[in-house]
Amino acid sequence: MAERRIRVMVAKPGLDGHDRGARVIARAFRDAGFEVVYTGLHQTPEEIVEAAIQEDVDMIGLSSLAGAHRFLFPRLMELLKEKGVEDIVVCGGGIIPKDDIPKLKEMGIKEIFTPGTPLNQIVEWVKENVKPRGSG
Amino acid sequence: MGKVFNESVFKDIEEAQREWEAKFDQLCERAPERLKRFITVSNREIKRIYTPLDVKDLDYGRDLGFPGEYPYTRGVQTSMYRGRLWTMRMFAGLGTAKDTNRRFHLLVRAGQTGLSVAFDMPTLMGYDSDSPKAKGEIGRCGVAIDTVKDMEELFDGLPVDRLTTSMTINPPASVIWAMYIAAAENRGIPRHLLGGTIQNDMLKEFIAQKTFMLPPVPSVKLIIDTVEFGTRQVPKWNTISISGYHIREAGSTAVQELAFTLADGIAYTEAAIERGLDVDEFAPRFSFFFNSHIDFFEEIAKFRAARRMWAKIMKDRFKAKNPRSWWLRFHTQTAGCSLTAQQPYNNIVRTALEALAAVLGGTQSLHTNSLDEVLALPTEEAATIALRTQQIIGEESGVANTIDPLGGSYFVEALTNQMEEEAFEIIRKIDEMGGMLGAIEKHYPQQEIADSAYRYQLQIDSGERTLVGVNKYVTEEEIPVEILEIDDALEKLQVEKLHRIKEERDQAKVRESLERVGEACEKGLNVMEPVIEAVKNYCTLQEVCDVYRKVYGTYRDPGIF
After folding, report:
1. A122, B32, B137, B146: which one has the fewest Cβ atoms less than 10 Å from its Cβ?
2. Is some CB atom of chain A closer than 8 A to the CB atom of B204?
């Protein structure tokens, strides 16, 4: 059987309404041949994790542009662990100060993409770092 | 006044232009043009040259007129910047009310001439600082306001009877405005003396900025409540700032920004008329807010086209008779989305060009972005440079010496005409969908913007479009800039303060006044008086918004991409 396509979720945690980047990257993922789930805006970390499990995604891409990543990203990582799905790859993007990045990576977030990153660079990163879950 | 060009000149110009074009083409065979397509930031193709042939039909009186005269292409005020420069209004908000108050005092000392408040996400969405949804977001991208007490601290020591205040607030605009009025009245300043603006434009929230609370129809109902109340009681207040800014930031083209914004204006005008108001009563207090992006001439043409279009819409479509109703007065902000995290000092130059376009386009007030806004909220130093940029344009460069200096430019006039024509075509499409509410339901503007945003990104990625420091002239070394830190401790302080106020207030009065707000909502009455009373009794922002949510329901993002 052919390996199934990569399923990615683009998620907007918190109250931040800046969704230009999230929607652009969702389209780029779709054009790259991934299956894409977009959560829409104003999701709590709990809602995102629940949807990720239900949709059986291989990766969650978090977008944050209003400074709440410091609370929301770690909270999401905690929840993944609690639910036993820490094998879902998590990356993030948006307005995230450089000094915050090492801390986020320590918590298990695999990559942070800052403004100006070309779309194909992100797509390539996903191809290299995300495999369909359960495929060993 | 009649036609600018006499018919008889065209033949000679046509002939000369043909010869010149042939010469140019010949040259291109040896040395081709440096680009395949010369396009604006909105993907509009620009010709080699513009001549009288591009504006053959130009009629001075019909198309341009004098500043302060219909159709206002050259400016809404008669004296424009010869009388007074635009209002230099820096958008600011960070941490607690006290922190932001300190920033306001600094900016006023540095010579800014109006105030502008940025609220944090919980406030923008109608949540108090002690809501579980507010966790991690308090004071992060603006100031946290829970009660009238915060509002009083925010404007402490600032002359709000002389300085006008703009507040970027949308779903809870009625409540925040009520707090502003209550805080001023508690200081002994009567409401009729207050001047300023609430953004209060929900349609563009559904389209672009995406801070929403209630479904579209009740959202518009609350807006019309503020319009009605303002018309009668706060006559110097702009009750709405119909905004293209966020539409553009979300990725639209210049023409989409123009068309969607004016279509929103049409929807609000229709709703206010339906309420039983006379167009000439309320339209003079409508104001607008546009983006000034990096494409210099296209932006200037957009501002000029906007003025002419709104004058026509008001006069012809709504039969407004008061010339003030024909005026499109607008605030401008330079384009945050044009700034780059790479080589951040380049952002000072981008902002200066964008600010210059806004001034040449005849803006009434202006915010200039700081060089570090792509990284975090601006530091004091960065915000001061941004303000100085406006002062240099206004007081050193000489561009404000004469009114509409680009009027009559073949290129700018041709672009102005072209953009007007294209924007009216989009407005016609929206009319066919049942107006902006119908179009939003069909996701028409949302989808159009997403398409433009995606195309733009692909052009950057492919190198068809240059972004200095990002896809060309890239440097390896990072240029360090100072980043403003918001103290994590302020969350706790703000929540404790809110709890103290909640304990000390008169609980019976709180209950009664919230019931009155609920009654007004259910009966379809104007909410403003009950909301002012409620906030004077220390009802919180969220308590009033929860009443709205209970009566009207909530709106969820459809999540399309």
Report:
1. B32
2. no
Inter-CA distances, B239 with A125, B292, B368, B439, Å: 48, 23, 23, 24
Q: Which of residues 310-329 of B touch A (CB under 8 A)?
A: none
The ipTM is: 0.93
Number of CB atoms found within 10 A of residue B199's CB: 25
Q: Can you tell me the distance from the alpha carbon of B249 to that of B240, in angstroms, rounded to the nearest whole number?
A: 19
As for how many domains chain B has, the answer is 3
> Does B35 fall in a domain?
yes
Q: What is the CATH number of domain A7-128?
A: 3.40.50.280
The pLDDT, as a whole number, for residue A135 is: 62
Q: In one letter, which amino acid is A127?
A: K
d(CA B400, CA B394): 6
AA letter at B551: V
Cis peptide before B71 (omega within 30 of 0): yes
Instruction: Classify residue B445 as left (phi > 0), alpha (psi -120 to 50) or beta.
Output: alpha
Residue A103 near chain B (CB below 8 Å): no
At residue B406 the predicted structure's pLDDT band, cuts being 50, 70 and 90, is very high
**Residue B359 region, left (φ>0) first, then alpha (ψ -120 to 50), else beta?**
alpha
Average pLDDT over residues B151-177: 95
Boundary-marking domain end, from B410, B445, B462: B462
The answer to whether the beta carbons of residues A50 and A98 sit under 8 Å apart is no
User: Which tens digit of pLDDT belongs to each residue from B50-60?
Assistant: 999 999 999 99
Q: Which residues contact A124 (CB under 8 A, 6 or more apart)?
A: none
pTM over 0.90: yes
User: Concatenated DSSP letters for B61-130?
Assistant: IIII--TTSTT-TT-SSSSHHHH-PPEEEEEE--SSHHHHHHHHHHHHHTT--EEEEPBPHHHHTT--TT
How is B500-520 classified by DSSP, letter by letter?
Answer: HHHHHS-HHHHHHHHHHHHHH
Which residues of chain A fall short of a pLDDT of 70? 1-2, 135-136
Tell me the pLDDT tens digit for each residue of A31-66.
999 999 999 999 999 999 999 999 999 999 999 998
Q: What pLDDT was estimated at residue B428?
A: 98
- C-alpha–C-alpha distance, residues B447 and B256, integer Å: 12
Size of interface A-B (CB pairs under 8 A): 106
Instruction: Please check whether residues B545 and B413 belong to one and the same domain.
Output: no
Q: Within a domain: residue B558?
A: no
B94 contact A CB<8A: no
pLDDT digits (tens, 9 = 90+) for B442-463: 999 999 999 999 999 999 999 9
Identify whether B471 is part of a domain: no
- Read off the amino acid at residue B227: V
Of B315, B399, B310, B384, nearest to B351 (Cα)? B384
- pLDDT (0 to 100) of residue B162: 87
> What are the pLDDT digits (tens) for B313-341?
999 999 999 999 999 999 999 999 999 99
